[in-house]
Amino acid sequence: MPSPDPVYFPVRRPRPWGQILQACAVIVAVPLIVLPFLRSGVFDLGTVGRYLFGPTILEAVWGTLSLATLSTALAIVLGTGVALLRISGNAVLRAAAAGFVFVFRGTPMLVQLLIWFYAVPRVIGRVSLSIPFTDVVLIEDQAASVFFTPFVAGLFALTLAESAYMAEVIRSGIQGVDQGQRDAARALGVPSGKITRQIVLAQAFRIVMPAVGNQYILMIKNTSLAYAIGYSEILLSVSRVYYTNFKYLELLLVAAFWYLLLTALITVLQHVLERKFPAR
To answer: Half-sphere exposure (CA, 13 Å, Cβ side) for 233?
Structure first.
């Protein structure tokens, strides 16, 4: 007896009424919150527009971006080294790496900034530098504070603090690589250094790319802490302006705009890289 032809029934998907109601609530709530704020006369939009792309602010934006980018890049390099020590077979190296992470992750970045800017130059005192076995003097009895500018102190502090976080991020990525790949490479006689570089780290960085992007965004915002040591970043620049014209809210909105814009640009770049270099 021939089998009957299959019967297909149309599938009707239920409407997501909950999501639709939530979207409508957001569409209604945003104007109700924003429009009264704009019409209140509490702040002057003209002042915001006048300073938004001012040369002082743009210079501060570049200062923020350069410090954050360089600190993050150095933190990735240093954090990778610390992460490799954290999984080392040597107990002393593991303990040293764990101590590094504990100290620099457990101490507030602001405290580290103040130490590098005020305390470290006093500990070093004066600096002299010459080329060995010659009479060529490169630095002749200079105070260490001359070299520890706000940028240098900020770079040291933010790099070391961020590298402690980055070490844990990268360590999690390394542990996410299948151990069988390493065992297979060793069985084929691949040198351990090549295994680490071309097999483990190459895959680990794909895994941790979203987390590294998030750390970079956090670093953009953490540069505002360099305000305390006089580094010319966004927050310090707007504060110098509002201390003279008392337009506190307007200038803080300018700072918020630039932080949001930088965050948005980095987020877009992060998504592009994630699509180009997927984790799996």
So the answer is: 26
Query: Would residue 247 count as lying in a domain?
Result: yes
Residue 194 located in a structural domain = yes
The CATH code of the domain that includes 157 is 1.10.3720.10
pTM equals: 0.81
pLDDT in tens, 209-258: 888 999 999 999 999 999 999 898 999 999 998 888 888 888 899 999 99
H or E element in which residue 110 lies: helix 109-114
Residue 182: phi and psi, rounded to 5, are -65, -45
The residue count of the chain comes to 280
Of 203 and 108, which is predicted with more confidence? Answer: 108
% of the chain exceeding 70 in pLDDT: 90
Mean pLDDT over the full length of the chain: 85
pLDDT on residue 4: 64
Q: Sort residue 239 into left (φ over 0), alpha (ψ -120 to 50) or beta.
A: alpha
Q: What is the DSSP letter of 201?
A: I
Count of structural domains within the chain: 1
The answer to whether position 74 is within a domain reads yes
79, part of any domain: yes
AA letter at 223: T
Q: Please state, in angstroms and rounded to a whole number, the distance separating the CA atoms of residues 11 and 214.
A: 41
Q: Within 13 Å, how many C-alpha atoms sit on residue 106's CB side?
A: 6
Q: Which domain holds residue 90?
A: 53-276
Tell me the C-alpha distance between 150 and 121, whole Å. Answer: 12
Burial 254-265 (b: 16+ CB within 10 A, else e): bbeebbeebeee
Distance, in Å, from the CA atom of 211 to the CA atom of 214, rounded to the nearest integer, reads: 5
